[in-house]
Amino acid sequence: MIGVESILRELEAALAEAQTPEQVELVRVRFLGRKGTITLLGKETDFRSLGPEERRTFGSQLNELKRQAEELIAAALADRRQRAQARAEAEARAKLDLTLPGKDRRLGALHPITLVQMEMEAIFEGMGFMVLTGPEVETEYYNFDALNIPPDHPARDMQDTFWLEGGLILRTHTSANQVRALERYGAPLRAIFPGRCFRYEAMDASHENTFYQLEGLVVDRDISVANLIAVMKALLGEVFQREVKVRLRPGFFPFVEPGFELDQQCPFCQGNGCSVCKHSGWIELIPCGLVHPKVLEAGGVDPHKFSGFAFGMGMTRLAMLKFGIPDIRLFNSGDLRFCEQFPVVL
């Protein structure tokens, strides 16, 4: 009836020549497709010319032929796919250069000043302070005039200030935000102003022309030096998580009266003197004082009803103290190895 053996031998020969999965698929179409050899056997046979027994025999042979053909094709397809994968892996190994360095999968890190700023903001927000920002390109009015800094003050000289066109400057301190905040929010007010500042000065282990400060301002009724000292003690205790030795000495700043300098004993030399502390044993940490009445007036606040205190700390210097960094120039070096020493602990 059907030359099953001859068709299977023909199929096996065709599969033996097929070397890829795509070629095996062509063999399948050739034998089992709509116009394939085995498919046409069932379509082109005139069953009316066959007797009952012949029809049963023909149908049984055709089904068995299809089953065997499908098994042979499936086995060949699996074999060719395995071969193709083996070839791809071999080619990949051949292209692999074991002398090349591995992929860099280092975790990212935050800059130490960023870590200090995040910590400062969290501490002050816990004490009810707002966190505000201001422009880095500032006007002479907000940077100097509104802060009671006279026109002949040496801070305005080219030796200290980067002057731009149109009377603009790169702000020399974040104190420039004091009057801006008072104009916008009025009194009472509790706010800090973290940000980048710029001064035209020579760089060494403890001085940079680009650095970060955090200014703080509290304005309310009946504010005194006692309030200032209480906030400073609470702040330092949170920052260093230990008792630190400090001193408060008189200091002059045009925008506060009276003014103070809060110094911390140098952690690098334990007060014995080194290049970081200029051999004094102390590091200037927080200039502070009671807000000058003229600054309150510039911000639209009545100095007869309200008083306040202001303080400014160098976040760059604070990061040096907190992390034991001996040279301020490392912060702006752009060396990723420096930042990787300060992983973020979540």
> Which regions are unreliable across 5 or more consecutive residues at pLDDT < 50?
none
Number of helices: 11
Oligomer: single chain
Q: Structural class of the helix and strand makeup?
A: alpha+beta
Beta-strand fraction estimate: 15-25%
How widely separated are the two ends?
79 Å
The coarse silhouette is: elongated
Succession of helices and strands: HHHHHEEHEHEEHEEEHEHH
Characterization of the model:
This protein is of the alpha+beta class and 346 residues long. Helix content is 41%, strand content 18%. Strand 6 and strand 7 (256-265) form a beta hairpin. Helix 1 runs parallel beside helix 4 (52-95) and helix 3 packs antiparallel against helix 4.
Helix and strand layout, with pairings?
Blueprint: H1 4-17, H2 21-32, H3 37-44, H4 52-95, H5 112-126, E1 130-131, E2 137-139, H6 140-143, E3 168-170, H7 177-185, E4 189-198, E5 210-220, H8 225-240, E6 246-250, E7 256-265, E8 282-291, H9 293-298, E9 307-314, H10 315-323, H11 336-339
Parallel strand pairs: 1-4
Antiparallel strand pairs: 2-3, 4-5, 5-9, 6-7, 7-8, 8-9
Helix pairs in contact: 1-2, 1-4, 2-4, 3-4, 5-10
